[in-house]
Amino acid sequence: MSIIEAITPEDRMYVKRYILVVLVIAAYERDCRYIEDNLKTPGPYIDTIKLAINRAWDDLKDVKKHFRSKGLKVYEQNSTKIGIHAKFMCRGYRSDIELRWEFITAEATVLMRKYLGLDISKYVGPN
To answer: In this structure, how many other beta carbons lie within 10 angstroms of the beta carbon of residue 24?
Structure first.
């Protein structure tokens, strides 16, 4: 079996999703701290963001379930000038992936809108 057959495009998509959802959760948590420190009435905003964080955690649980079923594991992740470089294992095969900051920003913004319950139809295709 060659490495291309061992690690499928679906596997890579789940690795990307894992990286993005973790970043989104961190961004929401950072934003909550900022809002709490800088607004006079942070409660409603914090509550809304916490709901979004819960949705993101639910998505991350689904990703981790897929990781377990496919033998996937991200074992190293580094920020670089151009993006995030991650190393992962899949069914015993090692590989890596590089996500550029432009891609991360665009995808994370759509995910954040989705978790907040906003309409993302203009950002994503019908599939």
So the answer is: 25
